[in-house]
Design brief:
Elements: H1 12-28, H2 50-56, E1 60-64, H3 69-81, E2 88-92, H4 99-102, E3 109-113, E4 132-137, H5 157-178, E5 191-195, H6 211-234, E6 239-244, H7 267-280, E7 289-291
Parallel strand pairs: 1-2, 1-4, 2-3, 4-5, 5-6, 6-7
Helix pairs in contact: 3-7, 5-6
GO molecular function, one term: oxidoreductase activity
Keywords: Signal
GO cellular component, one term: cytoplasm
Length: about 300
């Protein structure tokens, strides 16, 4: 029941009613806001042979997680094809003096110790004036000592924050340290690849679970979008891509690949395919989320 303030006279009440009705009609005529649209789908990337691309690459390359299964294979592929005088920086927790680093050509590869899961910033390793053309971030935390969570009750704060620190905040530290040193675009746009995961897709999630890993990968995908916007606005055109490499047999995934069958890739295949995607990507791919075939994935 409509009640009126006691200060209103009997004569003014009809006028107030007319005003309320008029306002209601006016509001009802305002169209509703447009519905939210699905995130834009980026054009597919055609995997391209890496050999001619590597020979023409001008600028240094940074690989994180360089002693891991995928990261070490990427470093090996780059050593075989990189142009003369180019430098590869291989970052990992204990890479300096390791057996794998001793197999790399010291004229091409510089091992750098960096544990991206800690609070330590990325160390300085570039020479004065040195420019970076390609960054591939392969380091990640999936289960640790806690394991992927199957339900809400199993979420542990320490593991959750460790996942965010390793899988998401490590990207921020890379941005802060290396983006000021990106080389200007020539025939190849400076590129930062973050190895993501399809389980980080909000739209594609129909099974749930794996809370910490999913959330951290979703956040890293958004970080790539934000970095691409900021750098392309302030500096020059760059590619910031999130790539789902597919299930690959490595120490990270080995506890979870039973029953997957032929869908599991070798680390050598995955490493080569990632580089083929880099060689085939164009400017308009910046901020995109892709699988190993080059198809765009929904965020």
């Amino acid at each position: 029941m409509l009640s009126f303030p006691s200060t209103l006279t009997r004569r003014s009440r009809p006028l107030l009613l007319l005003s309320l009705v008029s306002t209601a009609r006016s509001l009802s005529s305002i169209p509703p806001p447009p519905p939210l649209t699905h995130p834009g789908i980026h054009p597919p990337i055609t995997p391209t042979s890496i050999k001619p691309w590597l020979k023409s690459l001008k600028g240094s390359i940074v690989i994180t997680g360089a002693t891991g299964g995928i990261g070490s294979c990427i470093v090996n592929d780059l050593i075989e094809g990189v142009g003369e005088g180019e430098r590869i920086y291989a970052l990992s927790r204990k890479v300096e003096g390791s057996s794998i680093s001793k197999s790399w050509d010291p004229e091409i590869v510089t091992p750098v110790n960096w544990d991206c899961s800690t609070d330590d910033p990325m160390p300085s390793f570039l020479e004065e004036g040195e420019k970076v053309k390609l960054i591939i971030h392969t380091a990640a935390l999936l289960n640790g000592s806690h394991g992927p969570e199957k339900n809400l009750k199993s979420i542990n704060q320490t593991h959750f924050l460790n996942s965010l620190n390793t899988n998401t905040y490590s990207l921020i530290k890379i941005y802060q340290s290396l983006l000021p040193h990106l080389s200007p675009p020539t025939h190849f746009y400076p590129t930062l690849i973050n190895l993501s995961a399809r389980v980080g897709s909000i739209t594609d999630d129909k099974s749930g679970g794996w809370w910490s890993y999913r959330i951290s990968k979703t956040a890293s995908n958004h970080a790539q979008v934000l970095a691409g916007i900021e750098v392309n606005r302030q500096r020059h055109k760059c590619n910031f891509l999130s790539v789902h490499p597919g299930t690959t047999y490595t120490d990270l995934s080995s506890p979870f690949v039973k029953g997957v069958g032929g869908k599991v890739h070798s680390k050598e295949f995955t490493a080569e395919r990632i580089l083929e995607l880099v060689a085939g990507c164009e400017e308009e791919g910046s901020g995109g989320f892709y699988d190993w075939t080059g198809q765009s994935l929904p965020f």
